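Readers outside the structure-tokenisation community will struggle with the description of the input data as it stands. Showing the layout once, in full, would remove most of the difficulty. For illustration, here is how one protein appears when written out as sequence plus structure tokens:
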Amino acid sequence: MIGSGFGNIFKIPELKKRILFTFALLIVYRIGVHVPTPGIDRIALAAFFKETAGTLLGLFDMFSGGALERLSVFALGIMPYISASIILQLLTVTIPHLERLSKEGEQGRKKITQYTRYGTVLLSVIQGFGISVGLESMTSPGGAPVVIHPGLGFKLMTVVTLTAGTAFIMWLGEQITEHGIGNGISLIIFAGIVCRMPAAIGNTFRLLSTGDMGIFAVIILTLMMVLVVAFIIYMEQGQRRIPVQYAKRVVGRKMYGGQSTHIPLKVNTSGVIPPIFASSIIMFPATLASFVTIPWMKQMADAMRPGNLMYELLYVGFIFFFCYFYTAVTFNPEDVADNMKKQGGYIPGIRPGKRTADYIDRVLTRITLGGAIYVSAVCVLPSVLMTKFNVPFYFGGTALLIVVGVAIDTVAQVESHMLARHYEGFLKKSGSKTKGRF
């Protein structure tokens, strides 16, 4: 079934062209990850990064696909674009002008996209300058400076190089979205994370060959990984469907309405935003401590490293907070209730208006609790595996949520292209029947 579905891809010229175009641009991105920024001592930089595991630098390096560790032209990765997008999305709720643009259809969306690009360049300049300043103060454990010739020239060159790299990645992502398959920005992050898998697999086989890890432990670990991925797929597709009934309306001599539908509320409405924000806040002291030698900051940084009890408790607490905060910002039950009332819709057994808004809010609050527990469990999993079970690679957390989510969305888009041209998809039955319902 799945094999025949993949075979059908190459029978559709447009879909084949889109997929090949996507792969070509992802290869360009991976080549750029290995193009170095001038003026850096690579050996000293690599030695420095070995001492900064578990800091915000490590988080950024994960999203840049290893480009930050090499300090390539793509060192900033796509994080400035993600940050600008999140900021614009949050400002849309608070600034009337942006809110009006978001409701103006295609033209408004293009304007917000343009603002996002400007914000990306601005954030890239700020972050590039910060990195250039930080690099000049970095030394390897042996005392070798990371920057060969520090000064204003190095700072300007680094800012221009890194900003141009981020702008190019942003362009690649937009081209993939428009002419390829899937969301380009998400696929770029996906590619950066997945490219680290061969090294993790190779490290596991090395430990297996030396006897440091038994074959039974590898089998158990593999089964657990499969179960975790299946659980994430189930939860990411899980939703609570609130039934909605529309009253019949007579317009002239015709009767309209009377149909039944539903409001799909996702269990994990906020996606990967909560763990990204939570990691950034908690790891900030550890990152600052990498640049300074103040004793109390070093102690705070050690307490905030993954695996410590304080880190895990704060991490889970921030994930819960941002799950509820981001859901409240992006989903307004009162607007949904008002729109339903205007269109003659109602939830059976619930009065239209405020009662409907309160009901939706109550349901959303409950399923968000389940979503927060699920995200917290997946994000704490890597620390548990690495500290308690000595797993030799990073598995779980934000990276796994991104990989699974992007894979689901991309497969769904390929499936829609195939079904639209009357070809059999990856599964014979509709994937909607497999979605979790709560």
